[in-house]
Amino acid sequence: MRNTTKLGVSTALALIIGATSAFAEDIKIAFIDPLSGPFAATGTNGLHQFQFAADKLVNEKGGVLDGQTFEVIGFDNKISPKESLIQLQVAIDQGIRYVVQGNSSGVANALTEAIDKHNRRNPESRVLFLNYAAVDPALTNDKCNFWHFRFDANADIKMDALTDVIAANEDIKKVYVIGQDYSFGKAVAAAAEANLAEKRSDIEIVGNELHPIGKVKDFTPYARKVVSSEADAVITGNWGADMLGLGKSIIENGFTGPIYTYYAAGSGITAAFGEGGKGTIRLISEGQINPPASDESTAYYEAFKAKYPDGNIDQSRIANTIGMLAQAIQEAGTATDVVAVATALEGMEYDSMWGSKIYMRPQDHQAIQNMHIAVHTDEGVTFDYDNSGFGVVTETTVEMAGMDSPTTCEMQRP
C-alpha cells in the first residue's frame, strides 16, 4: 500500500511538472537578418519590432492556445545567402518551426528553396517561412511554394501604385531608374519600364542602371549622371545604407525633383535626410503612420517608443505578420503542425491596426492590402522617425493594391 501511494504521488507530480512545462513552452520564431555590417541598423530595428509585436500582440494577451507565448530569436545572416542557410539549419536544429526574414530578396530566394527542400525530406520537422519584406515578384510567382508567405506587397504591386502617381503628374517627362544589382533591384527596374510604357508612353527613361549592393562608399558619380540627365523624377528600390547614400548624394548634387522609393525611412535614414529630403523623398509602403490610422496604432506606437526610445516602427507589416501568425495558430488549434497553420493562413482576412484589411491570397500566398505613397516632411507629423521631427505623411492611398494582379504560381500542396 505504501509503495502504491508513493508511486501515485510521483506519477501525479510528474504529470503536473509535464503539464506546467507544456503550458509554459514558448513558440520560437527565428529572425534571420543582418545584425552586423552595413545593414545592421535595419536588421536590429526589425528584430526589436518583432520582439515588441510578440510581447504586445500575443504574450501580454495571454498567448495562444493553452497560454503558449512567442519568443523571437535573432540570427545574424550578415546579409549573405550562404550565411542565411547556415543560420537556418541552426534554427531548425534548435527545434524552431517559424522563420521570418525580409532584408534582401537574394537571401529570401535562398531560404525559400532550402525550406521547401527541407520540408519535403523531413516531414517531422517542417518549417514555415514568413517573409515580411523581400519583394522579388518571383517569390510568389515561378518560385512560389506552400511554405512561403509574403506579408509585404511585391515589387510589381508597389510599382503599379507608384507609377499611377507618376503618370498623373504632367510635370514629369523624364525618369531615371537606379537600384542595387541583385534580383530585387532588377525587378524594380523591369516593373518601372513596363508600367511607365503602358501608362505614359511619352515619359522618357533617361537612365536605367544598377550598382553593387552594400559596396558603394561614394555615390557622387551616380548622382552626377542623374542630374546631368535632366530627369524630372528618380525611381529606386534601394534600402539601408545604399538608400541613404544614394539619396543624399542626389540631393546634394542639386536634384530637386521627387525621388520615389521603397525603403527611405527610419533606421537613421529619416534623420540623415532631414531638411534636405523634405518634399523630395517619397515612399510607398503598407500601413499609415501619419496621420495615425487608429487609436490602437497610436497606443502601439507610443508604447514602442517608450521601450525603444531610439527605435522606429518603420515596418508596420511586422505587427501584421505576428498578428496573423497568432490568429492562424489559434484557428489551427496547434503550433506544431505547420501544415495546419499554413492552411489557416491561406485566404485569411486580418484587420490591421494600420488602417487596412489584409487578405492572404491563397493561390500564391501574397498579402493584399492598401498601399500608401507618403512624403518626407516635418509638417503634419504625429509620429516622427529617429527622433528627428521628420516623418512620412500619406499623400495618396491605393486600396487593396494588386488584388487582381496576375500570378504564375502553381502551388504544390502537401
Automatic annotation (TrEMBL):
It holds the Pfam family Peripla_BP_6. The keyword Signal applies. Residues 1-24 form the signal peptide. GO terms for biological process: amino acid transport. Residues 27-374 form the Leucine-binding protein domain. It comes from the Bacteria. Keywords: Amino-acid transport, Signal, Transport. Gene3D superfamilies: 3.40.50.2300. Coiled coil: none annotated. Belongs to the leucine-binding protein family. This is Branched-chain amino acid ABC transporter substrate-binding protein.
